[in-house]
Amino acid sequence: MYLETFYTDRLELRATSQDDADFIYQLLNSPNWLDYIGDRKIYSKAHAEAYINTKIIPQFKRLGFGNYTIIRKSDRAKIGSCGLYDREGLSNIDIGYALLPEYAKKGYAFEAALKLKEMAFSTFQLEKLCAITSKDNISSQKLLSKLGLESKETITLPGDTIELMLYTINKTNS
User: Could you tell me if residue 63 is inside a domain?
Assistant: First the structure.
């Protein structure tokens, strides 16, 4: 299993583990997560631990990459998550990110996602990435465009009814 930690000027991206259960509980219940990503039904630390065990760790074991906890170097605060996800209904690996509200609008999501995009193509040898976002999440749309992803179409994921914008980027265009 490939669990390298990645670094940027201001951030550390470390594979999410059971040590992050309290943080995952907080993040997945933050207003922006619930509004733009959806309720994952994580109502306690125990639910967060189960989520990490059933959703996050298996993908790392299977693919060598997954969800990374974003840690600010200056004070070691856990500020968000960024990851490369094998998501049902998508034909390519999905790059995604989320921050606690108090850390938004400071460039952290872009910094973390840019690093993971680079790692996706160089270290993990992916040929294409995609991303999904809701039509009303303008901040995410701007960030994806800044990362070089282009909106091609709208999709609806299996078992859902919400139409999402699908963005893509090829390794050759990055």
Answer: yes
Does position 171 have pLDDT exceeding 70, yes or no?
Answer: yes
70, pLDDT greater than 70: yes
**Lookup result for tokens 């967060």:** 48
Would you call 70 helix, strand, or coil by DSSP?
strand
Task: Tell me how many helices (H) and strands (E) the chain has.
Answer: 6, 8
Ramachandran class of 41: left when φ > 0, alpha when ψ lies in -120 to 50, beta otherwise: left
User: Is 124 in contact with 84 (CB distance < 8 Å)?
Assistant: yes
Query: Within 10 A of 167 (CB to CB), how many other CB atoms are there?
Result: 24
Interatomic CA distance for residues 110 and 116, integer angstroms: 10
pLDDT of residue 167: 97
Output the six-digit token pair for 88: 């049902």
| Model confidence pTM above 0.90 | yes
Tokens of 26: 């907080």
* CATH value at residue 53: 3.40.630.30
Boundaries of domain holding 70: 6-126
Please state, in angstroms and rounded to a whole number, the distance separating the CA atoms of residues 72 and 127.
Answer: 29
Percent of the chain residues past pLDDT 70, beyond the cut: 99
